[in-house]
Amino acid sequence: MSKRDIGKKYNWSQTVVQRLMEKYYINTRTDEESKIQMSKTKMEYSLLRT
């Protein structure tokens, strides 16, 4: 597997996870809480990616 393939696979799964999480948080939390949670999640992702 090339680096590009791994990247594609990772980006795809990351997008799916993010969508699922957005759905979950929108359904179960207030807008304010979900915004805070999503920003935390995005920060965690950016830390993992570096």
Protein described:
The chain is an all-alpha fold and 50 residues long. The chain has one domain (3-49). Helix content is 90%, strand content 0%. It contains two helices and no strands. It is elongated and about 40 Å long.
Brief characterization of the structure:
The protein is mainly α. The protein is built from two helices and no strands.
Write the layout of secondary structure elements.
Blueprint: H1 3-28, H2 31-49
What are the main properties of this structure?
single chain; 50 residues; mainly alpha; 90% helix
Q: What spatial form do the alpha-carbon principal axes imply?
A: elongated
Measured on Cα atoms, how large is the radius of gyration? 13 Å
Structural class: mainly alpha
Order of helices and strands: HH
- Low-confidence stretches are none
Terminal residue distance: 21 Å
Overall strand count: 0
**Average pLDDT, to the nearest integer?**
72
Which percent range fits the helix content?
over 70%
Number of helices: 2
